[in-house]
Design goal:
By secondary structure, the chain is mainly α. It has a domain of 50 residues.
Length: 132
Amino acid sequence: MATDQDLPRSRVRLINERSLPPTGSETSSPAPEADVPAWPPASDDRPPPTMRTPDRASPRSSPAYLSEMMLAMASTLGVMLATRALLMLALIGAFALALLTVTDPTTNRLIANAIFDVLVFLPLTALYAARG
């Protein structure tokens, strides 16, 4: 008979052990064995359902989807850069008109500077601030 020292040491430590009293139907008969086939079936050569196969590739990895997304990103980037470039040109124009107006302040230059600022520079700045 094997003693506790002869058995291999388990990683699980038993804290307490209690046996339950048998009920009327569970006296000493073993549980019936069910006729269940082994899983996964031996004749099935399909990959497990979690693995992706080429015929079920994600639509996000398809070349058409990726090229469409790259085109949309490039279009958005182009609009953002065009807005910033237009605002920069308006700023340079407003600065040049203000510099000309300060160096020789005539009535026509003051009116031209005010019209440019009100009709061009301020609306562009407001649009840029609102949309980014």
